[in-house]
Design brief:
The structure holds two protein chains of two kinds.
Chain A lengths: L5 H22 L1 H20 L3 H11 L3 H26 L13 H17 L3 H10 L3 H26 L8 H5 L1 H30 L41
Helix pairs in contact in A: 1-2, 3-4, 4-9, 6-7
Chain B lengths: L1 H15 L4 H19 L6 H12 L4 H10 L13 H19 L11 H21 L3 H10 L3 H27 L1
Helix pairs in contact in B: 7-8
Classes of the chains: A mainly alpha, B mainly alpha.
């Protein structure tokens, strides 16, 4: 008997997806939409190789800002889309939707820890899910570590709350107004976007006298999937042609 | 049947090619906005993963779990710790990646290579889990969801996340070249 090819497995998986989707639909119709959107997100992640961890580490390792700019693009478009959905709710006197959570010391500490953690593990939480799907056994371990860390964090949460969390979410349009709030956010994101070009150019003219090789084939720099074989530590890394690891 | 063959070849090329990063970013942003428009709920990952942890843990110590859920104002009960929208979204992401990898004939099981990989993975996972609970979200929930929702905590998280990531990268580079 012939071995089943990966394409055939993919077709089989499509049938499973449809069946599971149907089961979700009969249970609760909104579940089907979540299921389809989740699959679309996963598909897009794999196809584009987008990775938040390498968005940051590419800058340090390779002075490469492309992934960082892609992450910014994601932020920018979401920002604009969310703005109008929120504005719509505001105009109809409905509660403003969105993740508007308390800000304070805990946010800063959490951000720092998360930033270090995603580089060490080689992918953020979403990246972990992505690499599970790609077949990395290591990331099962990472997933369970994340679960462990989350429980620990939830366990300590009351301590943090008592000492640091004012429990006051800050919604920016409440301070600046709807127009200025949106404009400031957009301006900051665009400034950072522009800044990446400035820094990129300066670093490269100082060090190498050239710019980052504009058009490179995508497959050579896929987030992890193609390169981990040569990547002893397994962190989220993009490999680039003609540029050594110890570049600077 | 030549047209069918042509389509198959096109599809074959398409499924094994990859998109530029920015195109992926655009599609993800549109999906995120769709989710927000339909359900008024931004895309999130970590709070669901915490709930999975709770589901495991609730066999041992239910009070702490309930205490935390009350503190963050969640209306979740034990019953929907496992079967909820977030779980389906996360499972969908894994399935979607698997589908894309299979369709590109690029799927293969990658074994764990070394002890240091395990060490880094566990350390990174614990830090991420803890950090995400403190900040009430991860890259998706706190950074993307927070900034897009115009909440100050998203900006603060993003700033410190970047500092942490750069510090972590420098640390890792140092560590790699030392060994």
């Amino acid at each position: 008997m012939r071995k089943i090819s990966q394409r055939q497995w993919a077709l089989l998986l499509l049938i499973v997806i449809a069946a599971v989707g149907w089961a979700f639909f009969t249970y609760k119709s909104s579940f089907l939409i979540y299921w389809l959107i989740g699959i679309a997100i996963g598909f897009t992640f794999y196809r584009s190789g987008l990775c938040f961890a390498s968005a940051c580490s590419d800058i340090v390792f390779f002075r490469d800002f492309r992934m960082f700019r892609a992450a910014l693009t994601l932020l920018l478009i979401s920002f604009v889309g969310f703005y109008f959905v929120q504005l719509q709710a505001h105009l109809h006197d409905k509660p403003i939707p969105g993740y508007i959570f308390p800000v304070g010391m805990h946010t800063a500490v959490g951000g720092l820890l998360f930033g270090v953690g995603m580089i060490l593990a080689g992918g953020c939480v979403c990246g972990t899910l992505q690499r599970l799907g790609e077949g990395f056994l290591l990331f099962w371990l990472v997933l369970f570590s994340i679960i462990g860390g989350s429980i620990l964090g939830a366990y300590h949460f009351s301590w943090w709350r008592k000492h640091f969390i004012s429990l006051k979410p800050v919604f920016l349009p409440d301070i600046f107004g709807w127009f200025l709030g949106g404009a400031i956010g957009l301006a900051v994101l665009l400034t950072v976007y522009g800044l990446t070009y400035v820094v990129e150019k300066r670093k490269f003219t100082a060090k190498r006298g050239g710019t980052c090789g504009g058009k490179e084939t995508q497959s050579a720099r896929r987030c992890v999937s193609n390169t981990t074989v040569k990547n002893p530590k397994g962190f989220c890394q993009t490999k680039q042609r003609g540029r050594s690891h110890s570049g600077d | 049947m030549t047209w069918l063959k042509k389509i198959m070849v096109k599809l074959d090329n398409y499924l094994s090619s990859s998109w530029p990063h920015w195109a992926g970013a655009v599609v993800l942003a549109l999906l995120n906005i769709t989710l927000f428009t339909l359900f008024h709920r931004p895309w999130g990952v970590t709070s669901t993963i915490t709930k999975w942890g709770f589901a495991l843990w609730s066999f041992m110590d239910g009070d702490v779990v309930l205490n935390y859920l009350q503190q963050i104002g969640s209306s979740s009960s034990f019953a929907d710790l496992l079967i909820n929208e977030g779980t389906i979204l996360n499972l969908g992401v894994v399935t979607g990646v698997l589908l894309a990898a299979l369709a590109a004939s690029q799927f293969r099981v990658k074994r764990v290579k070394s002890g240091s990989q395990v060490l880094l993975g566990v350390a990174g996972g614990l830090l991420m889990g803890y950090g995400a609970r403190l900040a009430l979200g991860c890259n998706i929930g706190a950074l993307l969801g927070g900034i897009a929702s115009q909440s100050l905590h998203g900006w603060v998280f993003g700033f410190f996340l970047f500092i942490g990531a750069v510090a972590g990268s420098l640390l890792l580079r140092h560590y790699i070249f030392k060994l």
